[in-house]
Design a protein that fits this description.
globular, single chain, Alpha-ketoglutarate-dependent dioxygenase alkB homolog 7, mitochondrial, mitochondrion, dioxygenase activity, Jelly Rolls, oxidoreductase, 230 residues, alpha+beta
Length: 230
Amino acid sequence: MKLLLTALKHTRKPTVYIGRRCCSSPSSSSRGLPSLQDEVIVGSSLELVQTLGSQVQVRPGFISEEEEAALLQELEPGLRKKRYEFDHWDDAIHGYRETERLRWGPVCEEILNRVRSVAFPQGGPLLGPVHVLDLDKAGYIKPHVDSVKFCGSTIAGLSLLSDSIMRLVKDDAPNEWLDLLLTRRSLYILRDQARYNFSHEILKDEESVFNGHRVPRQRRISVICRNLPG
């Protein structure tokens, strides 16, 4: 996939875009964001972008509308039985409900196998249950670093129902950051340093801006695969 790097000014500090040309159909793009279709990551410096280039990936249009509908058809009945919670055991998530799913129908299993094939080494040990996180429109994920006790070096997530912005900030240098434009039906992958040395968060709807472009946040479901700790 061809990378397009463009250096710009972003308010008072320089930024760098990594643009990935979307190889899916035009229907996968988000309305109101035509100029952002190929520009999915913005960072605080070119050096940071180059350092994390192989460890942060966004693939717009990874699944089709029909595949999204198939996932929702399996997930919605169980999610509807749960209430949105506004407290989390480690105070990382606000306005959410979640579940884990081990068994899927054939269509959804094929989708998840495709995620695993692009995100994880072949034959590597994977965490069995798939984590499903449902964020209310008013919900958000606070900056946090996932515990190494619960998952390994790689996390891969499908974004359903809504566009959103994921922000990564270096633990010991808060002026070093990346913003990821996670369009509806995209896949994101975080590996190694991006997992352990950077916090990540999903911005609130009122803060959801990508390089000056407003990105409205609706209810968002993420379907997340992880590998086992090494």
